[in-house]
TrEMBL record:
Domain N-acetyltransferase: 4-151
Protein name: N-acetyltransferase YvbK
SUPFAM superfamilies noted in UniProt: Acyl-CoA N-acyltransferases (Nat)
Enzyme class: transferase
GO molecular function, one term: acyltransferase activity
Gene3D superfamilies: 3.40.630.30
UniProt entry keywords in alphabetical sequence: Acyltransferase, Transferase
Classification of source organism: Bacteria, Bacillati, Bacillota, Bacilli, Bacillales
Length: 153
């Protein structure tokens, strides 16, 4: 199994990772709203930057997995799973209690991915993606609603 390392990205360097974030969130306008929030890490594997992951923080010991993106070369081999499991340990050790994540109703693969990692559906944010400048379609389905998941750490 591949080894993964998360390297913190300083706030002033985050814009240079914008293209990675856009792999998971198509709207540059929306990404720019949160790019400087929370903690962002480069996902390093085999001496290369495989992607990025960004976490934001909420009251009551909650961390949100806001964006996780892997380049195509690193997808489909369990690396994303390793990153999220590493984050479970990282934030549990920092004293946080719960991780949340949201994905579009149209993101079929993501809906399965998060459930396989032990997340449970918690909430539907209806019409969330109507705020996006351009409509998003995946799997022939328009992204309209945000499906929120949660997992105790």
């Amino acid at each position: 199994m591949r080894e993964v390392k998360l390297e913190a990205i300083e706030t002033e360097k985050r814009n240079s990772f914008l293209d990675y974030l856009l792999l998971a969130d198509e709207s540059e306008e929306i990404v720019r709203e949160y790019i400087n929030d929370g903690e962002m890490f480069a996902i390093c594997c085999e001496g290369k930057t495989a992607g990025v992951v960004l976490f934001t923080f909420h009251p009551n010991g909650i961390v949100e997995l806001k964006n996780i993106a892997l380049t195509e070369d690193f997808r489909g081999n369990g690396l994303g799973k390793l990153v999220v499991i590493e984050a479970f340990h990282l934030y549990k050790n920092k004293g946080l209690d719960k991780m949340i994540v949201g994905t579009a109703n149209s993101s079929i693969d993501n809906l399965a991915f998060y459930q396989k990692l032990g997340f449970r559906m918690d909430e539907i944010k209806k019409d969330f993606f109507e705020n996006y400048p351009e409509p998003i379609f995946e799997n022939g389905i328009r992204a309209l609603d945000m499906v929120m998941f949660e997992k105790d750490l």
